[in-house]
Amino acid sequence: MVRAKLCFALPKGRKVRDVPLPASVARAIRQHMEQFAPVPVTLPWDDPTPAETPVGAKHRRPRTYSLLVTGRERKAVNRNYFNSYVWKPALAAAGVIAPLEEGSADGARVWEPSREHGFHALRHFYASEELEAGESIVSLARWLGHSDPGFTLRKYSHFLPRAGARGSAAIDAIFV
Questions:
Q1: Cα separation, 94 vs 56, whole angstroms
Q2: Using 50, 70 and 90 to split pLDDT, how confident is the model at 150?
Q3: C-alpha dihedral, 95 to 100 to 103 to 106, nearest 10°
Q4: Which end of the chain offers a freer environment for a tag, N or C, measured as fewer CB atoms within 10 Å?
């Protein structure tokens, strides 16, 4: 979102990433596409405000992409709507966060702000699961768009609750 308007833009760090797709995820995506056909959506690129130069206009021209996930009206999903009406209610239903207090006079849905429970937490989940499974820190850094694998390790190593267990098991195996 740029100034309350949806647009297409590169992800965090303005980098394109290629990430391997497990077969189970590919199957789930194919099943989703059978039930909900991808929808072509055209939005401005990077910045919805009018360009001031021909070069700016070239870089901001609208782009059309087929979206796998859309809102109820089969349009691009507004992240604020998704957070308030899909993500946070799902976390509340799972008992991760407190449910929303009902009965607001103006009907506003205001969840307690929390970076820990934001949608971005899925990135941290992915990174920590890949590390725990023994994936190469170099590969993971590339998939996350980090130029320094050391940064990736420093950022995500604290998400490894079972860290050290493999090493202990390896030493135990030697002496058993």
A1: 46
A2: very high
A3: -160
A4: C
Nearest alpha-carbon partner for 128 in 150, 153, 160, 102: 160
Pair of tokens at residue 62 = 């609208």
Cα–Cα distance for residue pair 4/44, rounded to 1 Å = 13
The SS3 assignment for 2 reads: strand
Q: How many CB atoms lie within 10 A of CB 131?
A: 19
pLDDT tens string 104-129: 556 666 787 777 888 888 888 889 88
* Ramachandran bin of 66, using left for φ above 0, alpha for ψ from -120 to 50, beta for the remaining angles: beta
Burial class (CB in 10 A: 0-12, 13-18, 19+), 110: exposed
